[in-house]
Design goal:
- The protein has 97 residues and is α+β, with helices and mostly antiparallel strands.
- The chain has one domain: Glutaredoxin (3-Layer(aba) Sandwich).
- It is built from four helices and four strands, in the order αβαβαββα.
- It has helices at residues 2-11, 27-37, 53-58, 84-96, and strands at residues 21-23, 43-45, 66-69, 75-79.
- Strands 1-2 form a two-stranded parallel ribbon.
- Helix 2 (27-37) links the parallel strand 1 and strand 2.
- The chain is globular and about 40 Å long.
- The termini are far apart.
- The mean pLDDT is 92.
């Protein structure tokens, strides 16, 4: 999963796009994963368990769950992977506005 996200971050670095993570791993596991996988985007800590407050509030039961939001903050898709076509469509729409 991480190579794909790194590619998107690199490809869209000058566009209205960001990845924001929420991590449920214990802190030491997360730190190791960040270094080993080259994660450069911000990620919130969700208590070190899959039942953390963010996952609970958003109803997350499968990992990874991906929310794609448009430039106005509207959730446009929820799934278990990134829809590249939708991301590029939303970035283009944001650039037009």
């Amino acid at each position: 999963m991480y190579p794909h996200e790194r590619s998107l971050v690199d490809t869209l670095r000058n566009d209205p796009f960001t990845i924001l993570g929420v991590n449920s791993d214990p802190p030491e596991v997360y730190r190791t994963a960040v270094e080993a996988n080259g994660i450069t985007w911000p990620s919130f800590f969700d208590g070190g368990t899959t039942g953390g407050p963010i996952a609970t509030r958003w109803g997350i039961h499968l990992w990874p769950t991906v929310f794609i939001l448009d430039h106005e903050g509207v959730i446009r898709a929820v799934g278990h992977g990134v829809d590249d076509d939708l991301v590029h469509e939303l970035v283009a729409a944001a650039k037009r506005n």
